[in-house]
Amino acid sequence: MTEGLGATRRIPGTPCWVSLMVHGLGNTEDFYADLFGWEYAPGPEQLGPYVRALLDGHEVAGIGEMPPDRQLPVAWTTYLATDDADATAEAIRARGGTVAVGPLDAGVAGRVAICSDPMGAVFGIWQAEGHMGTRLAGADGTPVWNELITQDTSTVGKFYETVFGHECEPASEPDFDHLTLRLEGRPVASVHGVGRALPHERGAHWMTFFEVADPDAAAVRVVKLGGRVLEEPHDGALGRLTLVADPEGAVFTLLRTAPTAP
After folding, report:
1. Which of 10, 71, 97, 178 has the least C-beta neighbours within 10 A?
2. By the 8 A CB rule, do 209 and 255 touch?
3. Mean pLDDT, to the nearest integer, of 100-129?
4. If we measure between CA atoms, which residue out of 78, 81, 57 comes closest to residue 5?
């Protein structure tokens, strides 16, 4: 589902990185190391206390620590690729979105900004330089899919289509408010409209799915490590999955992707 190792350029609009800002960096590192087998490398230093999570030496995600005086929600953030962060930031503002941070330089990593769409869902944009984002796909502990959970898909679908050039493919089921976002004919993300079922405490948000071989066993492991299971393991359109939260409350999905038909 994601572009894998060796990608030299991400098509603008493609999810290319996921990052988490927390209050206690060390404890969070330990949780994901135990859950996914991640190891860590520091930097970039422009982002403050920040580490890059590694699997077999390949970067898969980032974790940073908030300043002590910041009490922001702890959540995984999906980053979308861009060739020009400043131009994309302007397009986001022009289409009713918000640019909360940046664009700013992140050293050799390139140029980044933190934004939100018209419904308030937070995401990042990343103009990569030396750092090309997630460099491994398919292994346990790697981001495998990204889905926007929002009130309805109509307005927000047009936003992503206009800003990033996504082709929006609606679900075939008439009562299922769902879009697949495609670039050059390839699915890269999805949008799920849940109406009044949108969580009040979270609002619209991007969800990160991490690949695991056994979601049932991984859910048990999450609880043993101090996290919570929010939705018990079950079978879905993407495969077998479970919704969980880490000890600081960051919500994410564990997924064993369904086999691709030959």
Report:
1. 71
2. yes
3. 91
4. 57
Phi/psi of residue 37, each to 5°?
A: 80, 20
Q: Which residue has the tokens 């859910």?
A: 219
Per-residue confidence (pLDDT) for residue 46, from 0 to 100: 65
Each residue's pLDDT tens digit, 149-173: 999 998 899 999 999 999 999 988 8
Residue given tokens 């190391």 in the structure block: 33
Question: What Å distances lie between residue 133 and 29, 129, 174, 230, CA to CA?
Answer: 19, 10, 36, 29
DSSP the chain: ----TT-S-PPTTSEEEEEEEES-HHHHHHHHHHHH--EEEE--GGGSSEEEEEETTEEEEEEEE--TT------EEEEEE-S-HHHHHHHHHHTT-EEEEEEEE-GGGEEEEEEE-TT--EEEEEEESS--S----SSTTSEEEEEEEES-HHHHHHHHHHHH--EEEE-SSTT--EEEEEETTEEEEEEEE-GGGS-TTT-SEEEEEEE-S-HHHHHHHHHHTT-EEEEEEEE-SSEEEEEEE-TT--EEEEEEEPPPP-
